[in-house]
Design goal:
133 residues, mainly beta, Jelly Rolls, 5-stranded antiparallel beta sheet, 3-stranded antiparallel beta sheet
């Protein structure tokens, strides 16, 4: 299941629940999104042939998108629009993922939690990368 967090005008975030997908390759994001998030499910003995990805020119100027995957634990996420107004609150459980596309977020950890974080680099400094609410 995929849940979009909207502020009425744009998609701020996408929650990809652990039960999203089925056999094959299924992408949660659109082809235009700078981060392509997909789920690949295959059976024992299946093969994806060896390959490499070719260079591509990417011209992207926008908000740094961030992907989080909950390896273990539980975290409550507050979602904010670009003006800093809270628009939603959701709980992510082990196996769930989050793609933050716009706006902001805050986290309250309800259990000991381990996250994988992926975002567009390079990261400069907290002062140049984040604005606190």
């Amino acid at each position: 299941m995929i849940e979009e967090i909207n502020n009425g005008q744009e998609c701020l975030a996408m929650i990809i629940r652990k039960n999203f997908g089925s056999y094959g390759s299924h992408f949660a994001t659109s082809l235009e999104n700078p981060l392509q998030i997909g789920v690949i499910e295959r059976g024992a003995g299946d093969v994806i042939s060896s390959h490499k990805h070719l260079p591509v020119q990417v011209d992207y100027c926008g908000v740094r998108q961030e992907f989080l995957h909950v390896m273990m634990g539980k975290v409550r996420v507050k979602f904010f629009d670009t003006e800093g107004r809270q628009v939603a609150e959701r709980v992510l459980d082990q196996g769930d993922s989050l793609l933050q596309m716009s706006g902001g977020h805050g986290f309250n950890f309800e259990e000991p939690t381990r996250l994988i974080e992926v975002k567009l680099g390079p990261y400069s400094t907290k002062d140049n990368d984040k604005q606190s609410y």
